[in-house]
Amino acid sequence: MSDRHPGRRSRLLALTAAAAAAGAVAWSLRDLPAAFGRRPDPLDPRVRNSPQFRDGVFHNAPSELARKGAERPDSDAVRRMLFERTGRVPSGPVPLARPEPVERAAAGVEVVWYGHASALVEVEGSRVLLDPIWSDRCSPAAQVGPKRLHPMPVELEELPPVDAVLISHDHYDHLDMATVKRLVDLQSAPFAVPLGIGGHLRRWGVPEHRIIELDWDETCTLGELTLTLTSAHHFSGRGLTRNTTLWGSWVIAGPSRKVFYTGDSGYFEGYARIGEQHGPFDAALVQIGAYDEAWADIHMTPEDAVQAHQDLRAELMIPVHWCTFNLGIHPWAEPIERLLAEAKQQAVPLAVPRPGQRVDVDSPPELDGWWETVS
């Protein structure tokens, strides 16, 4: 029998396809509201009384060293991000290492870098997990946003028990809802976070007894592990609002040895103060990627990173915040190439592990140029 109403049938098929597409989009965005997290209560006395909080938001400390930049890219930076894309991803698969399972945390100081800013730090028998993101994208939505440039070297379920999960700030490439939710079930450790981030965690089902919120220069003690939130020159935000939660860096201290993690930050006087108050450090994990003149006061260049490392009075430098996500305008391997040149000139000891490679701080691996094969 012939179709007596072909136009009506075509319209019906088009409407059906449009409805299916809309449903698919809605399904992909179903977790979007939750991923934005929850703003802290501005009447919370800990927030309201913080020296960093005024006029309803958190602020950086005044700095004469931080170069002028912006929290949001200007029109020229947006144009370059959209159209200047040559070399911004590796040319082939990033070489990975699979760390051997270790039953007990190192008696000394060892670090496993998983890519970007995610790392496992072991100090004198204690373990801490830094800014874990195991999702394929650093985004509030699973189908859009910067996509991972290499797989995670290990599954989240394969991690050993940790004593704490540390978060530096609430940007999507450092605080990932899906990873946090999985860690609630897989681990029993508390989450130590800057002020205000507890609101995000509570919305995502983290029990109250596993949330430790700190202001700058506040400390918590977990057994023989001492964790101190220190300052950084950055900003925060997961939606249209900015700076409703605090950001920071971390001092990770055992009984006699210490590691520092910068989080994200522009270069500023705070590094020298942290070095004087908390140093020296056996190692420092220092941000080196996603820099640009447009945000010079919130992300360090590789040269800034070397200076910060020296200010901190740290021994071995381990670069982080590069390799894994295309978040900057520079070529993919430029951060590590510039860092190598500056570290050599300043005689700064450097370890550049593959994602997943374990670094014994007392006997670091030699530089082997693994990134050159995919630059």
Keywords:
alpha/beta; globular; 15 strands; 375 residues; 23% helix; single chain; 9 helices; seven-stranded mixed β-sheet
Instruction: Using the CA coordinates, give the radius of gyration.
Output: 22 Å
- The count of β-strands is 15
Uncertain stretches: 17-28
Largest sheet geometry? 7 strands, mixed
Order of SSEs:
HHHEEHEEEEHEHEEEEEHEHEHE
Order of strands across the main sheet: 8-7-6-5-4-3-15
Q: Can you give me a brief rundown of this structure?
A:
This protein has 375 residues and is α/β, with parallel strands linked by helices. The chain has helices spanning 6-28, 32-35, 45-48, 75-83, 177-186, 198-203, 270-278, 302-311, 334-346, and strands at residues 53-54, 57-58, 109-115, 118-123, 126-130, 164-166, 191-194, 211-214, 218-222, 225-230, 249-253, 258-261, 281-287, 314-320, 358-360. The strands form three sheets. Strands 8-7-6-5-4-3-15 form a seven-stranded mixed beta sheet. A six-stranded mixed beta sheet has the order 9-10-11-12-13-14, covered by helices on one side.
